[in-house]
Amino acid sequence: MARRTRSSRAWHFVLSGVRRETDTRAVALATGARGWGYDSDGQHSDSDSEPEFSSLSPSIPSAIPVTGESYCNCENQSEAPYCSSLHALHRVKDCQCGEEDEYFDWVWDDLNKSTATLLTCDNRKVNFHMEYSCGTAAIRGNKELADGQHFWEIKMTSPVYGTDMMVGIGTSDVNLDKYRHTFCSLLGKDEDSWGLSYTGLLHHKGDKTNFSSRFGQGSIIGVHLDTWHGTLTFFKNRKCIGVAATKLQNKKFYPMVCSTAAKSSMKVIRSCASCTSLQYLCCYRLRQLLPDYVDTLEVLPLPPGLKQVLHNKLGWVLSMNYSTSKPSSSSSSSGSDSDSSCGSDAEACQRKRCRRT
User: Fold this and answer.
1) What is the pLDDT of residue 342?
2) pLDDT in tens, 167-182
3) Using CA of residue 279, residue 340, residue 336, residue 148, what is the dihedral sign?
4) Would you say residue 22 has pLDDT above 90?
5) What is the Cα–Cα distance from 201 to 218, expressed in whole angstroms?
6) Cβ neighbours around 190 below 10 Å, total
């Protein structure tokens, strides 16, 4: 029998490896990861990539999108078919639930973003990594969050998966394109930013803490930056998660988001701002006293004209959902949605500031 050449043996080894990889991918696709270029084949990591959150629980498989966390029950929020077209990431029409606002205080900044981003919907929707992902992309708002009250909501309009997809804030010192070739949690990696990960981890100064339950496609993440009291509060599906940071007075921030996932997207569905006035403080207190109503204005015996003025100026304050129930010992450590730290911390801080004035 003729002896096999060394090159023939090498090709046999390569082909067998290709077959094994093909079989592995077939198993992964059968479990529901089909068509979305996940970490296994849509993201190409390098040696600088940081590991998944191995030291923190619960761990979430990066290649499997988060489901069951949508704000609404629209069918297209559970799964979306694959579409390779650059101008049509989803064949299913985007869900419009929760998108009632027509005026926006800010949108995404086309001049301050990573190279792997594309803006649509009048610069309110940011699309990350159009074809495949080779790192982390980020973008910030086009307006500095000056003194006063700022509230905005980000809707996850694509499957949420990968190393990280985050919502948060940061200063102008944050380099949005620094990790374009590295998979990481960009927001909160330094002292100039805070970021809430879809895994429920809160990031700041490179530290990670369990803060909330995870969020996925269709989830609405709200952020309230109170520069007067110096607090940063997060909401999920219009329910308070908790106060993420304090002592933020005299700092200049921008709203920011980042993603490592291929063909991912987020959309600004609300961005409001108002000065810290007696009118705001009264509306804020009214909302705390009447938390069980969708809109506090519906039950207040006010003239129609005054209701309309308050709705236009401070409607977002009168519709925020602050939890008042005390969390259990387990939920307080994990930062679940029933966390009452939103109302208690903000109210205590507000009383303290009022005594000073």
Assistant:
1) 66
2) 999 999 999 999 999 9
3) positive
4) no
5) 19
6) 17
Query: What are the DSSP calls for 117-154, one per residue?
Result: EEEETTTTEEEE-SS-BSS-EEEEESS-B-SSEEEEEE
Residue 106, SS3 per DSSP: coil
Distance in angstroms (rounded) separating the CA atoms of residues 230 and 243: 11
For the segment 85-100, what is each residue's pLDDT rounded down to a tens digit?
Answer: 433 444 345 677 767 7
Asked if 335 and 242 count as a contact pair (C-beta separation under 8 A), the reply is yes
Based on its alpha-carbon atoms, the radius of gyration of the chain, rounded to whole angstroms, reads 23
CA pair distance 197, 226, nearest whole angstrom: 21
Strands lying side by side in the sheet with 201-204: 108-113, 137-141, 254-259, 165-170, 193-197, 201-204, 207-210
The token pair at 128 is 């990350």
Q: What is the pLDDT of residue 343?
A: 57
pTM recorded for the entire structure: 0.73
The single-letter code of the amino acid at 177 is: D
Cα distances from 56 to residues 138, 207, 235, in angstroms, run: 24, 11, 22
Cα–Cα distance measured from residue 8 to residue 12, given in angstroms and rounded to the nearest whole number: 6
Tell me 82's DSSP state: -
Q: Bigger pLDDT: 29 or 215?
A: 215
Using H for helix, E for strand and C for coil, what is the string for 265-287?
EEEEEEEEEECCCHHHHHHHHHH
pLDDT surpassing 50 at residue 320: yes
DSSP string, 143-210: S-B-SSEEEEEEEE-S---SS-EEEEEE-TT--TTTTTTS-S--TTSSTTEEEEETTSEEEETTEEEE
Whether the per-residue pLDDT at 107 is higher than 70: the answer is yes
